[in-house]
């Protein structure tokens, strides 16, 4: 009961109670200041690995004597206007392209939110969890839909304060992030096809996704009036990839990378400022539940320097990470074994050296054949890292005692 109230987005009082119950010395604070973390940071600066650490939101945007960073912020504002992912009024009249869904997919603009919400209301297939759909026992999902793009964190549709769990997908450009989200949306909703106005856009050339896109998941029994971002049970976030992009120059690409990093650091338990948020941010949970780090299973070696740098960044911000090998339909059994072994060694080494938010098991999937998708969906529906790895054990034990 207490647990459910705490996780409920509308129970501010219960959340406050929980803040008091948190251990005095934060789980995250102790990890952040550990000698191992300090050594890692020192080693990182020594090898000049600063690509993903320079990205700090700029306060002074442009103007005379502006620094390169400020000029980039100016460009960012400019790009926001003509971004290809921006929703236009014309899109409101779009219909979803779902030909083989179990029931017709309806697309609706929700009146209570910004005029860019599309909802694909598809009869749900699974119902987990309790009344709120957001309980430690699981996250109930059944309906899915595109909510909104955001170029900057403050444009994100669900404010951090709502504490709705978010699952984000990161990786090199072309790793298969958007495809995976699309396939997961199909799995959740039971729809045969997810159109581009409801799901993420997929592209053959690296650099397709350019802004942070929010996809909402509602409960399977929610009706149309419940389908606002506030009522979402979880979000899936499609982020622009890092590394080579065929669709843009270096500067534009840097801007997209910055968008990803700004998103991550604004939703993570540890802020860029060094401030530690011990699971709770202004009385609610830090919303970023898990970051799926996608790696193309065909790569040899499996991890590139950029992947390692990204992993370092996630570690530094104490973001829970689950590594997923993608496109496994493209490789034979022997190559799969090799890829999984290689990746598991990396993950276990990192886990043992202090990156405890890194899920020790590596997942694999194919968005084309559907292999491994159930495991990813099950992971999210079971609450991701909320119960087990993310929170200190004593936290839940204390809660349960309170219930008695
Ligand atoms: N064979 C196979 N191809 C895949 C799979 N997943 C994605 N692809 C293909 O890989 C290409 C890139 O997929 P995207 O989902 O757009 O990749 P992304 O990571 O979102 O790329 P960016 O948005 O550019 O960062 C597309 O041509 C997809 O069809 C998979 O599981 N198997
Ligand atoms: Mg993409």
From TrEMBL:
Annotated Polar residues bias: 31-48
Ranges where the EngB-type G domain occurs: 163-386
UniProt keyword GTP-binding present: yes
Keywords annotated in UniProt: GTP-binding, Magnesium, Metal-binding, Nucleotide-binding
Record region (Disordered): 30-100
Name of one Pfam family that matches: MMR_HSR1
Molecular functions per Gene Ontology: GTP binding; metal ion binding
Protein name: EngB-type G domain-containing protein
């Amino acid at each position: 009961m207490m647990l459910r109230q705490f996780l409920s987005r509308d129970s501010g009082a219960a959340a406050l109670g929980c803040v008091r119950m948190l251990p005095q010395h934060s789980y995250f604070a102790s990890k952040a200041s550990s000698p191992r973390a300090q050594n890692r940071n020192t080693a990182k600066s020594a090898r000049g690995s600063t690509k993903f650490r320079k990205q700090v939101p700029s306060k002074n945007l442009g103007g005379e004597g502006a620094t390169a960073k400020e000029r980039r912020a100016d460009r960012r504002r400019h790009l926001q206007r003509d971004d290809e992912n921006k929703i236009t009024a014309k899109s409101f009249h779009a219909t979803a392209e779902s030909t083989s869904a179990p029931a017709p997919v309806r697309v609706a603009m929700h009146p209570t939110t910004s005029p860019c919400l599309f909802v694909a209301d598809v009869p749900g297939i699974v119902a987990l969890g309790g009344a709120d759909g957001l309980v430690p026992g699981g996250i109930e999902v059944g309906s899915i839909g595109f909510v909104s793009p955001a170029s900057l964190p403050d444009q994100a549709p669900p404010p951090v304060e709502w504490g709705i769990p978010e699952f984000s997908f990161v990786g090199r450009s072309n790793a298969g992030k958007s495809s995976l989200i699309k396939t997961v949306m199909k799995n959740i909703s039971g729809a045969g096809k997810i159109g581009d106005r409801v799901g993420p856009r997929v592209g053959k050339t690296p650099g397709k996704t350019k802004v942070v896109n929010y996809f909402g998941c509602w409960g399977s029994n929610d009706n149309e009036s419940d389908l606002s971002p506030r009522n979402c049970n979880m979000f899936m976030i499609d982020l622009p990839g890092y590394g080579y992009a065929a669709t843009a120059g270096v500067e534009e690409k840097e801007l997209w990378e910055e968008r990803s990093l700004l998103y991550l650091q604004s939703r993570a338990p540890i802020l860029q400022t060094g401030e530690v948020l011990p699971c709770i941010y202004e009385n609610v949970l830090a919303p970023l539940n898990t970051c799926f780090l996608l790696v193309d299973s065909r790569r040899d070696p499996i991890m590139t320097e950029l992947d390692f740098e990204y992993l370092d960044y996630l570690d530094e911000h104490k973001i829970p990470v689950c590594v997923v090998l993608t496109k496994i339909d493209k490789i034979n059994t022997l190559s799969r074994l090799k890829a999984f072994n290689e990746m598991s060694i990396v993950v276990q080494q990192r886990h043992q050296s202090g990156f405890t938010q890194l899920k020790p098991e590596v997942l694999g999937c194919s968005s084309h054949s559907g292999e491994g998708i159930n495991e990813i969906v099950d992971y999210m529906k079971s609450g991701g890292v909320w119960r087990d790895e993310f929170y200190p054990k004593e936290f839940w034990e204390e809660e349960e005692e309170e219930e008695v």
